[in-house]
Amino acid sequence: MKRKFFKLFTLATVLGSLVLTSCGDDDTNGSGTTEPPITEGRWITVAGAVMGTTDGVPGDGNGGTLIYSISKDDAKDPNKSVNVFDNGYVVPSARTARLQSSEDGFTFFNIAYGGGNGGEFSKYIVGGGQNFSPTGGVVNIAQYASASPRWVKLFDGDKTGVAVNVTAPVVHTDGTGAYSNTRGTATVLTLDMQNALISGTKSYEIALTAAEEVLGHHIFRLDAPVLNKAGNKLIIGTWMRKTNPATGANETTFEHLGSKSVVVDYPSLQNPTIITSTVGFGDTSGYRSFNSFLADDGNIYQATQRDAGGSHILKINQNNTYDNSFVFSLDAALGVTNSYIENWRYVGNGIALIMYTHDGASVSGLTDQPQSFMARVDLNAKTAQQIDLPYSTDMYFFQYQGFVVDGYDVYVTIAPVGQDGNIYVINSLTGAVTKGARLINKPGNHFIGAF
């Protein structure tokens, strides 16, 4: 596929003259809300995932990832169109890439997921269209975080990425052969994204309480780290599993413990401890996108998945412990049962946008997956309302990754698997929806975000 490149120094000069960010402390509309920063001249990068070529299933994303960028004006214009699958830049990744962009949209980051270059970090200057110019060095983190790393960037001025991994948990017995615990070795790695180098790494076993471990509970996966307000702790989400102590086999159904996160010192990555919620009883690892956010009030809000009572949003206070007085049930807010937050984004002023499914949702005959929906959530009022979008049984947001927040505008890509759709711009204050540029799709493929 043809790739075009801009000269980096010329492009950097142009971009530097374009970036004008609004003052985040101003109450711009007199309503008591604070407008998130606006970046003039930023790009909106659309990402698409390709169906696998061998035994591919529509929506699996196993055939790789392409990206294509357009201006904000074009993204808002329903008369414009984006053909990422024919004209996009191929992101290095054997399967669906885990993508990140800079806060201003001018730089793009990727760590290849699987394949011969799995674990390889790369960075690009966004130049419009299929023009993504590699910049800086390349570093491979596979030896620490596997060839299929789970990572996010911190909201620290695009300086740091954090990758986490747990090796396959191993069953341990005591001296008499009786079951003792199941543990894997966890690794937390920090990546200097400015200089493309590994800046820190620590590995350790993370134990639960003796009472929990003897029952077989253990950490299966870590994901979605977030930095606290003080900048001295990372909060890392967990996916829990359970071993049958009598057989040593994995139990496919079991009663979950309270939702858990791992807290480590930052930047040393030392002293891992576990905090437990008594509000949520699901996992907190998310899937391929951010699952925890530092909000305007200085607290962290975190979604749960596989929660017996439906997904919750949990609150972690500035003492780095769960605030169990804060109870937000998506089931209760929407009037559904067994809701599942597939991914979400905090967009400012206590408002979040959530992509989710629930019991009773139509199951797609194309993907065999339940239909996805989208809601606007007010964390302060603990309310939620489904967003008015052109829904389809084939709407599938489970692999979605990117929301662009630019002032009160939130850009999302909305299309059923294998069908055309549009970029939509959602006003975070009012929930109003504006239809933007057309997204041209291909059979089996789907869109996984705007960046």
* Count of the domains: 1
CATH architecture: 7 Propeller
Average per-residue pLDDT, rounded, comes to: 93
CATH class: Mainly Beta
Low-confidence stretches: 1-29
Q: What is the spatial order of strands in the main beta sheet?
A: 3-30-29-28-27
Rg from alpha-carbon coordinates = 21 Å
**From the helix content, strand content and strand pairing, which structural class follows?**
mainly beta
CATH homologous superfamily heading: YVTN repeat-like/Quinoprotein amine dehydrogenase
Helix content: under 10%
Number of helices: 6
Shape: globular
CATH topology, by name, is Methylamine Dehydrogenase, Chain H
Assembly level:
single chain
Strand content: 35-45%
Task: Write up this protein.
This protein has 451 residues and is mainly β. The chain has one domain: 7 Propeller (Methylamine Dehydrogenase, Chain H). Helix content is 7%, strand content 38%. It contains 6 helices and 31 strands. It comes from Flavobacterium macacae.
List keywords for this structure.
DUF4374 domain-containing protein, signal, 5-stranded antiparallel β-sheet, 5-stranded mixed β-sheet, disordered N terminus, 451 residues, mainly beta, Methylamine Dehydrogenase, Chain H
Question: Summary?
Answer:
It comes from Flavobacterium macacae. This protein has helices at 8-18, 72-75, 84-87, 142-145, 210-213, 330-334, and strands spanning 43-49, 65-71, 81-82, 89-91, 98-101, 107-111, 120-126, 132-134, 139-140, 150-153, 160-166, 170-173, 179-183, 185-192, 197-205, 217-227, 233-242, 260-265, 273-276, 292-294, 300-303, 313-316, 340-348, 351-357, 373-378, 383-386, 404-406, 409-414, 421-427, 433-439, 446-450. With 451 residues, it is mainly β.
